[in-house]
Amino acid sequence: MQLGEFEYLMLTAVARLGDAAYGVAIRQEIEAATGRPCSLGALYTTIDRLETKGLIRTSMGDPTPQRGGRPKRMVRITSKGEQAASAFYEAVMRVSRGVAWASTR
Amino acid sequence: MMTRVCWLLVETVSRLLDQSERDVVRGDLAECGVRPGRALREVAGLVIRRQVALWADWRPWLAIASIVIPIGVLLSHASRWWGIITGVDVANYWVLWDFSYLAYPGYRNDVIRTAVWLGAAWCALAGWSWTSGFVVGRLSRRTLWLTVSLFALVVFAGTLGTGTVVHRAPNPPLQYHLILVVFPRLARTFLVILPMALGALRGSQRPVLPLGATVFGVLLLAGASVLVSQGLENSIVFGRGLAPPDPGPDGFVVSADDPRPWWPLSFVMMWPAAYVLAVAGRRGWRGKSAHA
User: Which of B130, B184, B195, B267 would staple B80 via disulfide (CB 3.0–4.6 Å)?
Assistant: First the structure.
């Protein structure tokens, strides 16, 4: 399964957050990791795309007062998603071997 | 004040999202406590992405290519032409009306013929528009607001740069503004755009159409289309100027022996009605099969 950079970032954020993965939390995780803003448009269209590919599953969470009584969209990574993220990571590691910015770490 | 306007805009723009996504997004914005300007940018960005994704599908394009542009342009010309004719007839009878004239068979027949023709023309305009809207609603449910807006634009702008024989009259009297401008606009608004929008709404709900009523409606529309087919041809010939008026052997334009190169246009206008009939027929047939 081919992944894009942003898709990989999202799968990783979802995996790290576990049961607490939903829109706002995923967005904060990605922004903290990359130092770049993550728009709602990019976030939710990517979530839809990953769900269509079968790499994540989403469900509606319970409404909370801090959200004005509105629900969260909870996200879980699937085993297919874990395999795709793992393959992407391996590819990045392989291709980075021996290059200056990888060897200095 | 600006903050309130901004939140109002966020509320309005977010209505273009599905109900469940709208709730989630507004919940996210509330939880993050973002400023209204940024909230508006975020929601607008998501809406644009969603709309662009919808247009990656072929169905909205089919609706535009098969209904919005071809039938929209024809309805634009027909509604202008028939709006003018309605205006002329209404003005004539308004000025000249006298109940005592009805004693004369010739005048009475003329009144009846005019009323039947105008009734058929209005029925055809509304029927063609409703059925076209129905097909658009079925084909592009999620892009409906944009497709219907585009259709309205085509109907109102479809005759730009073209005139009619009535428009070409030098220095028309002031009261003819009512006939040349107001009546066509009324016809377009109430006999084209409104029925089209209602048909689109109905089509988007994927309703079960009663077969009997649908057959009756389509037959009525077919009858009206036959009655006004020459009028539709005239609206194109005199309005768009695609073909010069040909008077035929008798030397009079718009008489029985005129060649009719554009009469098949009535069939073009009827194909959405045939689609509506097919939808109703298929549902009816499925219902019978299920009972059997």
Answer: B184
